[in-house]
Amino acid sequence: NTVMAAQMTDAHRRFLQVLMSNGITEGSEARKLHQHCCETDKVYYAHDKLDDFISTINSHLQPLFMQIRKGISEDDGRAHYAVVNLAETEVTKMASDYTETELELFRKAMDLIILSENGFASSTDILNLADQLKTKKMKKKEAEQVLKVFVEDKWLSEKNGEYTLHTRCIIEMEQYILSNYQDVARKCNICHSLAIQSQVCESCGIGMHLPCVRKYFRGQTEPRCPKCNEFW
């Protein structure tokens, strides 16, 4: 109730504005931004109150069906923050920035990534779909440029010719992915957020992010599944 009643100051507005323009902000940068906004607007700052600061903003965003959400990078386990539009949970929220053909390519790339065993799709596999699009066939050179834009806009990540979903995409599209890929999408057994890149227990099938696996089994001589206790 205290949070709900809290005033949205210029510091909160400034923080929100930067988050929205960034698309996604890494945790340490969000903490620096929190300090900068509070000090600039001469309001109370405490280094351990970022979550409360964000809760205040979220209470004011609620009527607009928006929310600042925290997500974890599947590569290194670091926290990230993004502003999510709760009223549009589908890929169509990207429609204002991309053409129908570009969105179709994105959906096909997402299909390959989510349905893969390791959470990656090769550029070759994605580009092979470019001339099979229903909206309008794309030349491979054109498709390469579109993929580059998706990486720049932080919807996809690319490493050595392999593509996966960027942390921003996972934070914003989590509900869409969980409801549209019910048979294959899984949540990490440790942090309970959507896991695209994960290790899976061969016995019971639960999945864990690689950073969560490292953290969970740190110091254990014999790693065992947290659910079925089989050797991991």
Keywords:
232 residues; three-stranded antiparallel beta sheet; 9 helices; globular; alpha+beta
Walk me through this protein's architecture.
The chain has 232 residues and is α+β, with helices and mostly antiparallel strands. It contains nine helices and ten strands. The strands form four sheets. The chain has a three-stranded antiparallel β-sheet. Strands 4-6-5 form a three-stranded antiparallel β-sheet. A two-stranded antiparallel ribbon has the order 7-8. β7 (186-187) and β8 form a beta hairpin. α2 runs antiparallel to α3. The model has no long low-confidence stretch (mean pLDDT 91).
Q: What is the topology?
A:
Elements: H1 2-5, H2 10-22, E1 25-26, H3 27-40, H4 50-61, E2 66-72, E3 79-85, H5 100-115, E4 121-122, H6 123-127, H7 140-152, E5 156-159, E6 162-165, H8 167-180, E7 186-187, E8 194-195, E9 199-200, E10 207-208, H9 210-217
Antiparallel strand pairs: 1-3, 2-3, 4-6, 5-6, 7-8, 9-10
Helix pairs in contact: 2-3
